[in-house]
Amino acid sequence: MEADTLVKPTQRYFRPRRLGHVNLWVDDLDTSERFYSQVCGLNVEFTEPDLIATFLGTGHTPHDLGMIQKTNGVDRYGKDGLLQLPGTIGLTVGLNHLAWELENEADLVEAFRHLKEDQIDTDLTVDHQVAHSVYIFDPDGNYNEFYCDTVKDWRNVLNGPMELLTSYWDPLQAQGFTQGRYDANPVLKTVEGAPVQPWRLTHATLQTADVPRLVDFYTRVAGLHVVAEDDGVVYLAAELDNYDYNLVLVPHEEPSYHHASFQLKNESVLASAKAALMKAGIEIVEETDLPWKQSLFLRDPDGMLSEWYVARSGQRNLSGRGAVPLAVAV
C-alpha cells in the first residue's frame, strides 16, 4: 500500500538529503573500473592509487560509485598514519558502504554529538578533504557513511590520480558550518561511446531477514522516512523531493546487498543502451517491463548486480510482477 500522506518525525540524528554514492569492494580494480566506465558510462573522476581505489560518476556529487580493491588482509593507511582500511575488512567482494549526503557540517556535528550522548556506537570519523564523514553500521552489518561536502567546486580538488586524501576528523571539536557546500547546478558528463548513458544514482536495494529492525535504524538513526510499502517491501526516502526513494528493503532469509540503481533520462536512452549492449555482446542478466519502471540489470566482473532504469507513472503492484524476482521488480 502506498504511503500517500506522511508525517516526518522530529529527527534527533541524521537528516540526509539523498544517497550520495555506493562504494564496493572489488577483486581487481582495473577490471572493475573498465566495466563501470567503458560499459556503464560512469566517468572516472579521480583515483587514489595508494588506497587502490577509483571513484566514478556523472557529476551530481564527487562520485556516484566508489570501488576499492579488496584488502586481502593487508592494512592500508590514509594521511598522517590513519589506519583507514584495516586488513580485517574488505576480504570479499561486495558492498563497502552506502553514503548519505547531509545539508551541512552543523547537521553532521549535531547528529554525532547526539549519538554520543545516547551511547550509540559509531566507527570512523574522517576528513576526506572534500567531505567530513561519520561511519556507522546498521543492524545487519551494512556500513553507512554520513557526510557533508566541504568544497563546492570539488573538481578543482579531485581530478586524476591523487595522493592520500583521508585524515582523522574530530566532530566534537568542529565549529559546524551551516551553509550547504554541495553543487546545486553540477556539470554532468558520461563516457562518450559507452553503451549505457546514465543520468544519476538514485537508490540501493538491501535484502534483510528483519525488515522492521532495519526500518527502525534507517528512520530513527539514519533519518530516512517511509514513502511506500508493498508486498513486504519498504521504500525509504531522504529529504530531496526530486528522488522518489533512496533505499529499498526487501525481505529475504539472508541479509545482503542486492544492487544499486542508476536512472536514465528516458526510455529512448534505455532502448539505445539495450541495443548497444547486445551489439557489444554484453549480457543483460535481467530485464523488467512493468507499469512502474523499465530496466535492465548488468552483472559486473565480480558478479554484483547494477540496475539501469527509467521510472514510469504506473501504480506499483509487486504482487502482480509475474515471474520477475522480488528484488528485481522493486
Tell me the strand percentage band: 25-35%
Low-confidence spans: pLDDT under 50, at least 5 residues? 1-9
Q: Which structural class do you get from the secondary structure elements?
A: alpha+beta
The CATH topology of the largest domain is given as 2,3-Dihydroxybiphenyl 1,2-Dioxygenase, domain 1
CATH architecture of the largest domain: Roll
Mean pLDDT: 95
What is the β-strand count? Answer: 20
The DSSP helix count reads 5
Task: Give the end-to-end Cα distance, rounded to a whole number of Å.
Answer: 13 Å
Briefly say what this structure is.
This protein has helices at 29-39, 105-117, 211-221, 267-279, 326-329; strands at residues 16-26, 43-48, 53-57, 65-69, 76-77, 83-85, 94-102, 125-127, 131-137, 143-149, 160-161, 167-168, 200-208, 225-230, 233-237, 247-251, 256-263, 286-290, 293-299, 305-311. With 330 residues, it is of the alpha+beta class.
